[in-house]
Amino acid sequence: MAEPSQVAPYLDGVFRRTGLVLWGAFLFLAARPAHTRQQDPHKNSMPGMEMSTDEDMSTMGPSMAAMTGHMYITPRRLEQPGDEEKAKAVVGELKATMERYKDYRKALLDGYVIANPKLKQPQYHFISQANTREADIRFDPRRPTALLYRRTPVQEYKLEGAMYTTSPDATEDELNQRIPLSIARWHRHINFCEAPENRAKDYQATHPKFGMFGSIKTKEDCTAESGIFHPYVFTWMIHVFPYEIDFKEVFSLNDDVAHVH
Question: pTM for this one?
Fold first, then answer.
């Protein structure tokens, strides 16, 4: 996994250039200690380790779609008896927990920290370090890694959802135990080519070679450009929007639209 000192400055630049809602959270999550348990990034049959279906592309917004080739989304599994009920139970526990945090000041009192608060963002991540650490070990629907807020004309921060994460070493079977993969799609960020120091400005180019939006997607191509290849960066993650009326939208891959009504 890429070290925070290498990747965080890049992510900060990308975040400021694009306004993507994801990067504020990543800057915070990247500061965690590296994991000691290593896993083959191709475990669980991840052919190509990228978005590969029309469904993947049609259900996400432009922010995530722009990272095609640099994002892996878990394949949808066949639904098993009890899957929907289990997912709805998670959403129910989360929704009950989130009631307290409709007042964002209570989130701050409970240790959540706003990622990049001075930067205008379409979605703000309030992140809990304690919950982040715990999420690597066990899943508690009542302790999301992050709370997701939007600014509205009448509210400084309006709560719309939450983010769960887990160790980047987790298998898809382990993800399925948390929230069934027949219902929800977890994702992780992959194929990251870190630019050599003298070419760091390429991250900000209109058509970059390096980074999460870069044209380089393989270790061979990265090495040829004197970059450092990372099969994956950061954690497994999933956003949950429990206030959506249509249950199909609760685990939406589209962060560009408001999930508040």
Answer: 0.77
Indicate the DSSP class of residue 121.
Answer: -
d(CA 213, CA 208): 7
CA-based nearest residue to 72, from 196, 142, 175, 152: 175
Residue holding tokens 């950061």? 234
H or E element in which residue 164 lies: strand 158-166
Residues 159-215 pLDDT 10s: 999 999 999 899 999 999 999 999 999 998 899 999 999 999 998 888 999 998 899
- State the chain's mean pLDDT as an integer: 80
CA distances to 10, 33, 112 from 53, in Å: 29, 34, 36
Residue pair 214/206 in contact (Cβ under 8 Å)? The answer is: no
- pLDDT (tens digit, 9 = 90+) per residue, 131-167? 999 999 999 999 999 999 998 888 889 999 999 999 9
Q: Which of 182, 160, 176 is closest to 236 using CA atoms?
A: 176
Q: What is residue 87's three-state secondary structure?
A: helix
Burial of 199 (0-12, 13-18, 19+ CB in 10 A): middle
- Residue-level pLDDT at 117: 87
- How far, in Å, are 44, 87, 136 from residue 23 at the CA level? 26, 26, 20
137 burial (CB, 10 Å; 0-12 / 13-18 / 19+) is exposed
Could you state, in order of their start, the residue ranges of all structural domains in the chain?
A: 4-35+54-249
SS3 of residue 113 by DSSP: strand
- Nearest-angstrom CA–CA distance, 170 and 118: 34
Radius of gyration from C-alpha coordinates of the chain: 18
pLDDT at residue 230 above 50? Answer: yes
